[in-house]
Amino acid sequence: MNNMAEKIRERMSVVAADGTHVGTVDQVEGDRIKLTRSDNPTASQNMAGASQTMAGSSQGGHRYLPISSVASVDGDTVRLSTSGAEAQQSAGAQGSTQGGPSRA
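Structure (tokenized):
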């Protein structure tokens, strides 16, 4: 459906419109980009401080971004049309509600 999805490959860097590094592509699942668990800043912050790791993106869990938020794919970089804060919020919300296995 979306030509952007065809261009996105594993290990590409995902960067927000404001230049913030959002994550690294694990794979594309349907209309979402699955980000690697090892590149989850929310989990790192939670592990370093609060005990809120049970809610939302927990201890390095996968996060997801909608393909519709991709502005362009340049070389090895996926550029989003949203800010870093918006992308992190979107990824956290999708990860906590749709974090289970996908049937894509």
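Residues 44-59, 96-104 have pLDDT under 50 and may be disordered. Residues 84-97 form the longest helix (14 residues).
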